[in-house]
Amino acid sequence: MSYVRELAQRAKDASRILANLSTDVKNRALNAMASLIEEKAELIKRENEKDLKAGEEAGLSKALLDRLLLNDKRIGAMAVGLREIAALPDPVGEVVKMWKRPNGLMIGKMRVPLGVVGIIYESRPNVTADATGLCIKSGNAVLLRGGSEAINSNRVIVDILKEACAQAGVPEDAVSFIDTTERSAVLEMLKLDELIDIVIPRGGEGLIRFVAENARMPVVYHYKGVCHTYVDKYADLGMAERICYNAKVQRPGVCNAMETMLVHKDVASEFLPAMCERFKEAGVELRGCEKTRALVPWVKEATEDDWYEEYLDLILAVKVVDSFEEAVNHINKYGSHHSDAIVTENYERGMRFLREVDSAAVYVNASTRFTDGFEFGLGAEMGISTQKLHVRGPMGLEDLTCCKYVILGCGHIRE
Amino acid sequence: MSYVRELAQRAKDASRILANLSTDVKNRALNAMASLIEEKAELIKRENEKDLKAGEEAGLSKALLDRLLLNDKRIGAMAVGLREIAALPDPVGEVVKMWKRPNGLMIGKMRVPLGVVGIIYESRPNVTADATGLCIKSGNAVLLRGGSEAINSNRVIVDILKEACAQAGVPEDAVSFIDTTERSAVLEMLKLDELIDIVIPRGGEGLIRFVAENARMPVVYHYKGVCHTYVDKYADLGMAERICYNAKVQRPGVCNAMETMLVHKDVASEFLPAMCERFKEAGVELRGCEKTRALVPWVKEATEDDWYEEYLDLILAVKVVDSFEEAVNHINKYGSHHSDAIVTENYERGMRFLREVDSAAVYVNASTRFTDGFEFGLGAEMGISTQKLHVRGPMGLEDLTCCKYVILGCGHIRE
Question: Does position A32 have pLDDT exceeding 90, yes or no?
Fold first, then answer.
């Protein structure tokens, strides 16, 4: 048996035990993980130092080196995160629905773990602890494949997590790490659909496309967030300005930040000049349609490509639309089905926007920046899905489970 | 643009309109489909005759020719099925949950259609109408790819369904049919993940594996049903006999029929001889473990392969187990995670079986034959999933939708 298959097989075996562990035992493991990570902070930093040094030698960019770095603050955050997951309700075993059939059969849907969750991720070594915490709490075994640039950091974190499992009476194979930088290991992993139940890639678009195209098991991912805010003709323009500013400027480098602002033609001349001025002061580069530029001449010209663009930066595309319908069509055509908002005081338009925009999160009168597991009240998230099956939007603990049917009879047979 | 891509693009465009149609309009389309199918029964039979003739010439088996056949009864059943789907509640637009965050944001989950559903199926032309009915009712466009042996039947049915759409004001592209027997069309379809949201293969294991391995979009399927009934030491043996007999004999050719019977050693000598005798009278061939054969010597010897086998016939594998745990482990190892039952009067064992058996449908004291959309009260089903993501077990109307987040604010911005 190959190395990767053996790891996956052992994860599968462990998952059978994990699925039936009590919440107490799982929480004990998570709390032990948090304590051990704090205790062994120096060790983690030493191993992380090796990765940083190798990264520098390999000429990694400053941004990548920063993502790789584990300092006391980030190590502390890993521990806090694990304790927060321990404090969340356990989704496993919940009967979400149960009904009685005319023949008296009771039929219900019970939440159970998925089994083995594969995580393929780049650079950030804190994902190792976060993802493990979510998987263990939801009764899943986790099979981790981190980036080669973080291998020393990931290895030591996994050792610590395994030690905590052993302390708490959780099988050590509940946390497995593919400890090789061979690229072929990823491809092998993606073929093991009889052992790995779901794969979640976290990283750049290249990684995600590779995983989506090669995996035989289901994959949950999002490529990008091209998020819109549409300022309707019935908008409270003061509110619209606050929401648009927040959606673009508060943290431009994340997937739920606004990339395109759409403005109804009837309010464009009142709204755009001041709004654009405010963006300019915040250092936002604006790229507008012709109508936008007629109103605010210093705005750069937008090309067709701009409407598809996820800038992840202080850049914003701006378009004046003739109608509500044009706004919705623009969003459904150019967007990435992530998070989109309307600002309007008109009830019917708000409700229509909710129904007609085909995105994971659709907002009325709020900033798209709220698309996040914590902000939605899920407690934590494994990532955000722009797919439609199983989960759309932030993937929380519940989304690491599925429902099986449980049927209670008293000798029922089918006629 | 290729033929298949153009069809898929038009289906995608139609799906945007379908997603926002009222329930009334969708029901009108389904009822018009039913009426037109009845009206044009003679035309359908004439086209079906062509397929039957070609099938005979090509030397199709009797069973396959029977599956291909459309007679008055089967045509009537298609119409009835469509009217039944029209009578079901519309899942689209349901807000399944809504909660308030501490900051006042209201966050809810709203059911919306998946978009474009691809169906790849073999021989049975009635699937054309059934699948279309479920997709339209749930607001999805459907892209059908039937088997070449049924192409004349499928083509005429699709023409009728499209005519009904036009009558009801539903876009005709809501129902699309890949009208070619070229095998490459399937492969092309499976690559169009930006246009087709989900693919459901219905047919033999070969077809399903091909689709699962080549599709870039999510696939919902089940390979096979290796279903078990475990007769516990605390079983009511009279009930156990009735349940096991029903699970094996009532309709052996379907995926929820029992293929392996497990019996606890403490009740084997009391239970097995009479049970086996009853199976024998029903013409069931028994293949048993050594302990079974020690009690009932005329039973044939089972090999390791028998435990994996989906007979779909009057054949049953029988095994005596030493413990509850052995039964659960056997089911999780050899089964296909479809439908499995325990017969027991012991409360704790019943509850443990529900939790520990990793199958789509887990039963206490009932026949596995109930795994079915109608029997579960879902009204109808698109198929049965033995996968874990999105849907496990019978796939009903609700499972042809997904939930998006809808967020209602009043000027909320993120701090």
Answer: yes
| Closest by Cβ to B366, choosing from A105, A365, A392 | A105
- Whether B70 has a pLDDT exceeding 80, the answer reads yes
DSSP B215: -
Kindly state whether residue B390 falls inside one of the protein's structural domains.
no
Q: Residue A322 domain-assigned?
A: yes
- Is the same domain home to A148 and A215? yes
Average pLDDT, chain A: 95
The residue ranking higher by pLDDT, A318 or A208, is A318
CATH number of the domain encompassing residue A112: 3.40.605.10
pLDDT value of residue B47 = 98
User: Are B280 and B184 contained in the same domain?
Assistant: no
Q: What is the mean pLDDT of residues A178-205?
A: 92
Least confident of B42-51, B211-220, B285-294: B211-220
Indicate yes or no: CB of A413 within 8 angstroms of CB of B242.
yes
Segment A101-131, tens digit of pLDDT:
999 999 999 999 999 999 999 878 999 999 9
Residues A65 and A86 occupy one common structural domain: yes
Chain B residues in contact with A16 (beta carbon < 8 A): 332, 358
- Res. B216 pLDDT band, cuts 50 70 90: confident
Task: State how far residue B155 is from chain A, nearest Cα, in angstroms.
Answer: 30
* Same-domain pairing of A10 and A122: yes
Query: How far is C-alpha A179 from the chain's CA centre?
Result: 24
Q: Do A156 and A48 reside in the same domain of the chain?
A: yes
A387 belongs to a structural domain: no
Q: Are B402 and A392 in contact (CB < 8 Å)?
A: yes
Question: How far is residue B329's CA from residue B341's CA, in Å, rounded to a whole number?
Answer: 13
Angstrom distance (rounded) from CA A293 to CA B215 = 44
Confidence band for A256, pLDDT divided at 50, 70 and 90: very high
B227-B231-B237-B241 Cα dihedral, nearest 10 degrees: 20
d(CA A162, nearest CA chain B) in Å: 24
Alpha helix ranges (H) inside A88-137: 126-137
Residues, chain A, total? Answer: 415
Amino acid, single-letter form, for residue B234: Y
Q: What is the pLDDT of residue B380?
A: 84
Catalogue the E-assigned strands of B178-298: 198-202, 227-231, 258-264, 285-288
Which residue range forms the structural domain that includes residue B60? Answer: 3-220
List of residues 6+ apart from B141 with CB closer than 8 A: B11, B12, B14, B15, B18, B115, B116, B117, B135, B173, B174, B175, B176
Question: Which of residues B171, B188, B220 is at a domain's end?
Answer: B220
* Predicted local distance difference test score (pLDDT) of residue B20: 93
For residue A350, the Cα-to-chain-centroid distance in whole angstroms is 26
Is residue B202 domain-shared with residue B256, that is, in the same domain?
Answer: no
Q: Which chain A residues are closer than 8 Å to B115 by Cβ?
A: 358, 388
On whether both A133 and A214 belong to a single domain, the answer is yes
Q: What is the CATH number of the domain that holds B274?
A: 3.40.309.10
Domain count, chain B: 2
List, for residues A143-182, the tens digit of each pLDDT value. 999 999 999 999 999 999 999 999 999 999 999 999 998 8
Closest-CA distance, B46 to chain A, in angstroms, reads 35
Q: How many CB atoms are closer than 10 A to CB B134?
A: 29
Q: State the complex-level ipTM.
A: 0.92
End position of a domain, from candidates B370, B386, B407: B370
What pLDDT sits at residue A224? 86
- Per CB-CB distance under 8 Å, the chain B contacts of A93 are 355
The reply to whether B161 and B252 lie within a common domain is no
A380 within 8 A of A88, measured Cβ to Cβ: yes
Q: How far apart are CA A396 and CA A134, in angstroms?
A: 8
For the segment B139-165, the average pLDDT, to the nearest whole number, is 97
Q: Is residue B397 part of a domain?
A: no
The answer to whether A400 and A382 have CB atoms below 8 angstroms apart is yes
